[in-house]
Amino acid sequence: MKRSEILDKYKWDPTAVYPSREAFEAALKEAAEAIAAYARFDGTLEESGENLLTALEEETRLYRQLDRLGQYVTRESDVDKGNNEAQALQGRVWKVIVDFQAAASFLGPQIIRIPEETLESWYREVKGLEAYRRSLYSIRRYAPHTLSDEGEKLLADLGEGFNSQREIRAVFAGADLRFGTIRGENGEKIQVRDSTYTTLMASTDRRVRKAAFNTLYKTYDQFGNTFAALLNAYAKEQHARAKVAGYESVLEAATFDDEVTPQICDNLISTVNARMEAMYDYYDLKREALGVPRLHLYDVYAPLVPAASSKYSYEEAVEEVLKTVEIFGKEYHDTLEKGLKEKRWVDVYPSDGKAGGAYSSGSYDTDPFILMNFTGTIDSVSTLAHECGHSMHSYFSKTANTPQDANYTIFVAEVASTVNELLLCHRKLKESQSREEKLSILDQLMETYKGTLFRQTMFAEFEQEFHGLCAKGVPLTQDTLNELYYGLIRRYFGPRVACDSQIRLEWMRIPHFYRRFYVYKYATCISAASSIVKKLESGDPAAIRGYLDFLRCGGSKSPLDSLLVAGVDMTKPEVISDAIDDFSAAVRMFRELRQED
Ligand SMILES: [Zn+2]
Q1: Cys staple from 12: which of 47, 347, 468, 567, with CB 3.0 to 4.6 Å?
Q2: Beta-strand (E) ranges in 464-592?
Q3: 360: three-class secondary structure by DSSP
Q4: Band of the pLDDT at 196, cuts 50, 70, 90?
Q5: Dist. CA 538–CA 594, nearest whole Å
């Protein structure tokens, strides 16, 4: 579709951010001037509480302004990637944001240098400073891991060369590697690429899946030494940097950034391992449903049922989402209803040049905006529920907090969205009249748990193992990494799946291993969401109150403390088990529905 053919009510509205281009230009100019003048605070923070407060307030004001400027340009640039004017506008905002980061970079080190007793007395004496306690804490907690000024400068000067392995891997795998061709479902010639591999693995034709699997790994098999050298260099660098900054391990450094502890990751891994039979049971079901004598690794992404054909209009999708969130009460429901039906939060349909996928974004001074590429499938409805979860998390966080405390961290960011998705899915499983639709929902749900809970935990375990070996001084060679990975694959897929030996090379394909301990958060988020949904569905009003209070926490508490408000203790195995129970229930339900045939 052409964007001009879509009715305005299905498009978001940039004038909700700034009324006109002139207003935007004036705000951008003002921000750029204020940023240039920000250097006047440099060196003044340690002198008095008033100075500190003034610098912080100006930083917050600028941050809000830049966030809003960014919202305005993104509303235009993301709906038409070919709109050069919008892209140029975005470039100008980006430049000002980078300038701001550079201009305010003295804040951290100078805030850390203020003695604790001095700061405490300022909190008592300077009206307004208390409101910055949490953000100051977030900076000052790094004190034990901050080097001398010379040390930090040295790190910053060397910093450009750091973490280059990820980029090198991406260039090598994306631009240099050549994979062969295979015959597609209709006999057509298809070039195998890393980017299209997942689609080929979801083919309903087993021959295509097997050919893609063999072809892809034939190429990877020729470059194992290079990939191992890259990962080895990455692990060594991370280890050295963690050590220099006074962390026990790479895991401790990574979890410190998230304000959690290594125990959270350990708990995830040990609980998933203790419940591995649930996964094996799913693969048995997969084997039965696909009707193959033995399940191979090129079968595990094959859909169990054809995607449900039921089509939803956008208006119907909105009603589905609103019905799902009724459980949260009037404020949540009515705010969302108004946002979806009157305030044009959503840019609904795909059109030429529009960004793909879906997201929710917003700033402290604007409404949330949701980008959709709505197609009318149950998947699309689920995506809308998911994005509305993000939007409403931000809404509650903003209404309950100051701008400096409103941003929640990555560790909790996918909880509210996943809660909505799971609630919708459970409700449709109860209410849908279509067996076909139910099977399709269950297939999708099992796939989500497999990919988000089990697979990401396996990745985290691989990271723990190879970083652990590196810490002991063991070089990570191709053989070491292949063996390590293959051992995990066999454990996670179980004795009844044929673990084709090529899969030992899969670690080479995963860019996330160059982002230390990132992916386990996908697994903890879905577990927290599952656990919350279980409490919400029990009908306990305290669970609903607790959940809304969790949304209101925003960034005012640590992620673990915020989740406790929703009754979720991430240090306990129960949280992970709740998700595995939900997964197993889906496997059971799918089996029963299938047998009704
Ligand atoms: Zn999300």
Answers
A1: 347
A2: 497-498
A3: strand
A4: confident
A5: 27
587 phi-psi bin (left φ>0, alpha ψ -120 to 50, beta other) = alpha
How far, in Å, from the CA of 414 to the mean position of ligand 1? 5
Domains detected in the chain: 13-161 (1.20.140.70)
Give the residue from 383, 322, 378 showing the smallest Cα distance to 348. 383
- Do 372 and 384 form a contact (C-beta atoms < 8 A)? yes
> Could you tell me the distance, in angstroms and rounded to a whole number, from the CA of residue 21 to the centre of ligand 1?
30
Residue entry with tokens 């001398």 = 148
Q: How deeply is 27 buried, as exposed, middle or buried, from its count of CB atoms within 10 A (0-12, 13-18, 19+)? A: middle
Could you write out the three-class secondary structure of 473-506?
Answer: CCCCCHHHHHHHHHHHHHHHHCCCEECCHHHHHH
Q: Residue 528 Cα, ligand 1 centroid: separation in angstroms?
A: 14
d(CA 179, CA 75): 38
For residue 386, give the amino acid letter: H
Catalytic (active site) residue 30:
no
User: If you measure from the C-alpha of residue 18 to the centroid of ligand 1, how many angstroms do you get, rounded to a whole number?
Assistant: 26
Band (pLDDT 50/70/90 cuts) for residue 597 is: low
DSSP bridge partners of 296:
498
H helix and E strand count, the chain: 26, 7
501 close to 482: Cβ distance less than 8 angstroms: no
Contact 532, 519 (CB under 8 A): no
Burial of 591 (0-12, 13-18, 19+ CB in 10 A): middle
H helical segments located in 104-188: 107-113, 116-125, 133-140, 149-158, 165-171
- Give the closest residue to 445 by CA, choosing from 570, 303, 544: 303
* Alpha-carbon distances of 288 from 174, 201, 213, 454, 488, rounded to whole Å: 36, 18, 21, 21, 24
Q: Determine the 3-state secondary structure of 369 from DSSP.
A: strand
Average pLDDT over residues 510-514: 95
CA distances to 214, 238, 296, 490 from 513, rounded to whole Å, are: 23, 12, 25, 19
Residue 575 CA: distances (Å) to CA of 16, 143, 535: 40, 32, 11
pLDDT at 149: 85
The two beta strands, 346-347 and 369-371, are parallel
203 CA distance to ligand 1 middle (Å): 26
Q: Return the percentage of the chain with pLDDT > 90, whole number.
A: 89
Catalytic residue among 76, 387, 414, 506: 387
User: How far apart (Å, rounded) are the C-alpha atoms in residues 286 and 298?
Assistant: 12
Report the distance separating Cα 58 and Cα 106, nearest Å.
Answer: 14
Q: Does the pLDDT of residue 216 top 90, yes or no?
A: yes
Three-state SS at 370:
strand
Burial 451-488, CB ≥16 within 10 A → b, else e: ebbbbbbbbbbbbbbbbebbbeeeebebebbbebbbeb
Show the tokens assigned to 401. 């907090």
Record the pTM.
Answer: 0.94
For the cut 90, the answer to whether the pLDDT of residue 175 exceeds it is no
pLDDT digits (tens, 9 = 90+) for 240-298: 999 999 999 999 999 999 999 999 999 999 999 999 999 999 999 999 999 999 999 99
Cβ contact 172:211 at 8 Å: no
